Amino acid sequence: MMMSCTLRNTRSFKSTFRNVPRQCSTRSVHTSPTESTEDLVLERPNRWGRNDDGKVFIDGLPRSATPADILRLTRQLGGKEQGKLSNITAVQIEYNRCIPTGRALVHTSGGSPRRTSEVLRETQMTTIPLRSYIRNEPSSSSSSTFPSSSSSLFLRRTRGVQGRAEAAERGVQEGNGPGAGVNARGQDVVVWGLPVNVKSEQLRHYLRRLGLVQNASNGEPACEVIHIQHPNTKRVSNVSKHLIRLKNPSEAQALVRRLHMTYYMPDVWGKKFLLNTRVVY
Predict the structure, then answer these.
(1) Structurally, how many domains does the chain consist of?
(2) How far apart are CA 257 and CA 121, in angstroms?
(3) CATH number, domain at 261?
(4) Are residues 180 and 269 in the same domain?
(5) Are residues 170 and 114 in the same domain?
(6) To the nearest whole number, what is the mean pLDDT of the chain?
(7) According to the UniProt record, where is the region Disordered (predicted)?
(8) Among 12-26, 178-192, 239-253, 266-280, where is mean pLDDT lowest?
(9) Do 188 and 244 form a contact (C-beta atoms < 8 A)?
(10) Interacting residues of 76 by C-beta distance below 8 A, sequence separation 6+
């Protein structure tokens, strides 16, 4: 009697379970044999959790390329049938300690970032073929090394003159990432080859003494100097690197012309410290 009751309950449970509609399936993606699997990979969500929609990364640029050069190149691309690349809004050069790495970050608005990447991939600059990709493309081995401008902690911690000065004292200023991490606009100059014990304030007054910068309304030199820290603090170096922020790009170009390949305080150090300068865009 007990066994018949148990079998009846089991049979009732199975019939109830059959009537329940299936809510899930083991296959969540259905593809046809002719469908490209690469397109599915490119459309998957960003696993890094960063808002990089509308950004295209370019590799293989010459070190002397500027954002204006890249914008000029993109406006000339695209045929009559496809249309020109008019959706590019801004370009940021990637830097490593304020030295260009040959890569850039292209911001787009509207249109397809994938089409922009495909068009850029078929061109070249100064006979060097360009490599372009979006972050979700698995074929780009160096895509994970690009920092995201929207999630950069560096930009948030160095806002304003006082914030950048405090960040330099903490060793945050390393000059890495798009725009060297300081949102450079062609009015910043990086100087390296200085003595390691030179302070930012000393360099400001040295530039004013040479007549490279003018006086501000408060009588101080009209420039901002930031010490670029070395990422490896254990490494011993006898030279230092500084970033000079000026009022406009014309002052930055004039400073580079007059200071590049000159010696620092030759009356004291002689020809020991040869200075190198470069405009940061």
Answers:
(1) 2
(2) 35
(3) 3.30.70.330
(4) yes
(5) no
(6) 73
(7) 135-180
(8) 12-26
(9) yes
(10) 84
